[in-house]
Design goal:
The chain is mainly beta. The chain has one domain: Jelly Rolls (Sandwich). Helices cover 14% and strands 50% of the residues. The chain has 1 helix and 14 strands, in the order H-E-E-E-E-E-E-E-E-E-E-E-E-E-E. It has one helix spanning 2-24, and strands at residues 30-36, 41-42, 48-54, 60-70, 77-85, 92-99, 101-102, 106-107, 110-112, 115-121, 127-128, 133-141, 148-149, 151-160. Strands 1, 4, 9, 10, 11 and 14 form a 6-stranded antiparallel beta sheet that branches. The protein has a 4-stranded antiparallel beta sheet with strand order 3-12-5-6, with no helix packed on it. Strands 2-13 form a two-stranded antiparallel ribbon. Strand 7 (101-102) and strand 8 form a beta hairpin. The longest helix is centred in the first third of the chain and has 23 residues, at 2-24. The termini are far apart. The relative contact order is 0.32.
């Protein structure tokens, strides 16, 4: 009887493991493009740019700024000029003040040694893209320091809202 119970237990564990693996391997609709900043000094003329394709105009999406910086970065925020261009249109720009942390609580995001990565939602609620096709984005820093030291990379992440 013990032998039979052990076989059933192994069978159920195998089935559960396969289900977990199947569920965790499903494709997530995500776009992410990060641009490395040369020598970790972001000149205001240097743009993090990329293209992404939207084929589903029914679903809503969350847009995130992804920024990697060193612990030596001397501000709690960064001002960015973010541009988005839909198919057939001109690029629309918006200045965004992105908080990176506070003096009281330290850096936002996740850190490893002296490198910090922050992912910040920039649209207050999920948004739909009206047109199908290829979109372009552009991002530059508009801080007083030029070049802005201790910024490693900047980019955009787009996820389907759930």
């Amino acid at each position: 009887m013990t032998f039979h119970f052990e076989n059933m237990r192994c069978f159920f564990l195998s089935v559960i493991s396969c289900l977990v693996l199947f569920i965790s391997c499903r494709q997530i609709d995500v776009f992410e493009k990060n641009t490395t900043i040369p020598h970790y000094k972001w000149d205001n003329a240097y743009k993090a740019e990329g293209d992404f394709v939207i084929s589903d105009t029914v679903s809503a999406y969350n847009l995130f700024i992804v920024l990697r910086h060193l612990d030596a970065y001397k501000y709690n925020n960064i001002w960015l000029n973010i541009g988005l261009q839909s198919p057939g249109d001109t690029m629309y720009f918006q200045k965004v003040n992105l908080s990176l942390g506070t003096d009281a609580n330290g850096w936002d995001g996740s850190g490893m040694n002296d490198i910090w990565e922050v992912r910040k939602l920039i649209n207050g609620q999920p948004r739909r893209f009206i047109k199908k096709g290829s979109y372009k984005f552009s991002m530059s820093q508009v801080m007083r320091d030029n070049p802005l030291p201790n910024i490693m990379s900047a980019g955009l992440r787009i996820e389907k809202a759930r």
